[in-house]
Amino acid sequence: MEAGPEVKPTLSTAAAILQTKEDFFLAVQHGDLDVAKEAVEVAQPRLTMNGWTLLFAAAARNASLGGAEVLCRRLIARHVNVRGSDKKGRTPLFYAAESGHASLCAYLVTRVGMSVDDEDDSGLTPLACALKAGEIDASVTLLRQGASLGYVNSKGIAVYQFASEYVLGLLQGRKGQWVKPIGTNRKRSLRDSQACDLVTLEEWAAKRPKCSAAGEPIVRHLADRVIVENETHAVFVPLKDPELRKVRLLEKGLVLDQARLFQSELFVHAMPPEHWADTLGTHSTESVATNRIRRVVQSTSQDSETIVAAVCRASGHIVGFSRASKRPFAELYIETLKVQAGHELQGIARLMIQAAEIEAAKKGFATAKVGSRCLRQNVNAQRFFKRLGFTEVPEPANTDLHSPLVDCIKFERAVAVRHRVSSKSSM
Hints:
By secondary structure, the protein is of the alpha+beta class.
């Protein structure tokens, strides 16, 4: 006797199948599409299991089964919670990306408002999940929605490092679909790629605060504010708002300088300014960063940092700044050091480090050595520290896969025994 045609479950048979909570989740994630649709219609919107709502199950549905986006849209229309995360710290977007649902990823980001750069408990972002699973269409979609390819997670690993060389090659081959073309109108619509490139970073670095006056602040009549000086420049503690804003502008310029070291890398085509800033030691928001600088220069606490700036005598313009902090083992650590282009070979950096030592002593820092780190990629910075008498300090090798944005070389030298402090200034 020949077997009859396969009979698909009807709504009535589907209802008979859906007896327990587990049945609903299995049907939505792994079941026939008709059964899954029926499960979505009859389930309570607040139904949860192991930290999941049915929206998670639908997003994690295997692409070969089809219907993931249809199920998710219907669940959202039925007011299933879209804001929560599961026990792994993941939103449904993670599972949509991992399962290769490209159009669903776009929907969850643009219409539901899920973040493309959330990080789960294992350090993965939705884009990292898609790359790790080899889902190129979903990866391209997330990049077009502004996901960061260079984002460095809490473990020091960048998103692109979760992809195989083969997957990165495919992503490179499809750059035209997610990279903003050079020389085009930079105004973006929702249909354009939202990927942030070096041009985006340059625009961020050059942008002045709305409240700042046009042009450079002119610093004159420093009097007793001068800490150290030479024939062409003087170093002082910036206190006035225009001075602090110029320091902030230099700080952003330092972020851009370091980013340009990696301009040949694929990840620079998809990394927003806030991720560059966070990874390289500052904050992307103007008010937050400027207020932080203000707190440092106004504080006299023994545990605080110190910030100094260098001014050109001829122009009165601030052309450099340095931020240092107290570290364990009697170390004065140079966090940042920036000299504006055109002033590099005039001894400004040496003066600012000396001034940082003096200011640290005034604040009561007990220091015996000065230390700093520079990116392994930054060969010029390494030469600079060696010229100033710093020596490279071997550090334990890290066997983990770390981003080149956090791969640094440590330098140290002893604190100078004596400082020649100017008692008067002609400025």
